[in-house]
Amino acid sequence: MQLRSTVTKNFFVLIVAATFCIAADLLTGCSKNTNNPIASNDQTSRSVVLADNVADAVSDALASNNGGAMDQVNDVFELAAGVGIGSGTGLGKILGDSSLINRTYDSTAMAWTITVFKQKSLPPLYYGVWTRDYWYQFSANGHPQKFRITGNVVADNIKHKLTGGTGYYFTPRLVHHLRSISSDWTASNANTDIVTINGTYSRAGVDTVLAVARKGTVLDHTLSLNFVNVKGPRGSRLNRSEKTSGTIQGTYTATVTAPGKDPVTITKTFTITLGGGNATFAIDGTRYVADLATGDH
């Protein structure tokens, strides 16, 4: 009888302990498993969603059809060839409209300042309207000169800066409002068929995500880009993206606010490889290939 009583008592203790553990687990976790597959999958899902948001923002910030960085790259390539923005009229764009608002030459600095207005649209796929304020200086053999071609001398170098601008655009991915923009580039080999750009570029703005699964997420961000031997043909923009190559080192910092969730601040670094009309980069291990002309990926 004593053995039976002991077994019964031990069984009762086990039942009570198991019940307590289950109850505690419901509240705080009886034995927390950091490798819980459900928690792990949820974290992975959030990481992928965040990576997709950043990729959308970076892709559109590069696109030439909405005032992204490649639009300014193309303007430099045009300056080197004396067409488009560099023609003195601001007209002659391919697949878009632009108007030169003002061009002024500073004889003391031996440099030009211009303000450009552009608008491109193909509803419902995209719409963009923006202005850019440029400072630039031609030089040959290290000596500044007023024009791209002065006398018989063709400028081999262009110093080019973005000193300000405004912008708004929408794509199927997001709506963007520009807050600030700047750059400091040197375009070398400007007297050859292939121009090389090196230097820094940065912009800040607010993007609101439109993609259905992530709709309503807001990214208040700053994007910094370092251009390393970005090369392309001088001249008109026809098939320009397909002919542009090089590397861009990027840093994206943002406060991200998703519907129903507290804001989080993130910083992502990445390297963009240009080629074949695309920008290839990875965010948190996920690879993206964005069209340089449209930002589609």
Rounded mean pLDDT score: 84
Beta-strand proportion: over 45%
Q: Given the structure, what is the number of helices?
A: 3
N-to-C SSE series? HHHEEEEEEEEEEEEEE
The low-pLDDT segments are 1-41, 89-96
Provide the domain count. Answer: 1
Count of strand segments:
14
Please tell me about this protein's structure.
The chain is of the alpha+beta class and 297 residues long. The protein has one domain. Helices cover 21% and strands 48% of the residues. The protein has helices spanning 2-27, 37-62, 69-79; strands at 97-106, 111-122, 126-140, 143-145, 149-150, 153-154, 157-170, 174-188, 194-209, 218-233, 245-257, 264-275, 278-283, 286-291. The strands form two sheets. Strands 1, 2, 3, 4, 7, 8, 9, 10, 11, 12, 13 and 14 form a twelve-stranded antiparallel beta sheet that branches. The longest helix is centred in the first third of the chain and has 26 residues, at 2-27. The N and C termini lie far apart (76 Å). Mean pLDDT is 84; it is low at 1-41 and 89-96.
Task: Summarize this structure briefly.
With 297 residues, this protein is α+β, with helices and mostly antiparallel strands. It contains three helices and 14 strands.
